[in-house]
Design brief:
single chain, 115 residues, alpha/beta, five-stranded parallel sheet, 5 helices, 43% helix, 16% strand, globular
Length: 115
């Protein structure tokens, strides 16, 4: 089973487009009409949808860590630093994760890009 991704609102559209051209299941916060929603609620929404959150916002790291410490289930976070990981590297690594990993592989975890 492949990974479906939930893209945070600040993720460049080039990443989303690149992934869709490669057959990756992607839903953006904007398409889900959740623009401006607080990060904890977005992680809840991603979990509800069975999608892994992708973000370049380090606030998600703090929220994921809090959930790990408090044993709050979430479907996973993939993080790439805005200045250190290129758009091309994000597309390549997210495609790999989406097509190779299973949802259980990322449950309650944070995966850092580049791989």
């Amino acid at each position: 089973m492949s990974i479906a991704l939930y893209m945070d609102e600040q993720v460049p559209r080039q990443i989303t487009t690149g992934l869709r051209l490669r057959g990756v299941d992607v839903l953006t916060v904007q398409e889900d009409e959740r623009l401006g929603t607080p990060d904890p609620m977005l992680l809840d929404r991603a979990n509800e949808l069975g999608r892994v959150m992708f973000s370049r916002d380090d606030d998600f790291l703090a929220e994921a860590y809090r959930r790990q410490v408090e044993s709050i289930v979430f479907s996973g976070v993939i993080y790439a630093h805005q200045l250190l990981v290129s758009i091309g590297d994000c597309v390549r690594d997210l495609e790999t994760i989406a097509k190779v990993y299973n949802p259980e592989d990322l449950a309650n975890r944070v995966e850092y890009l580049p791989l």
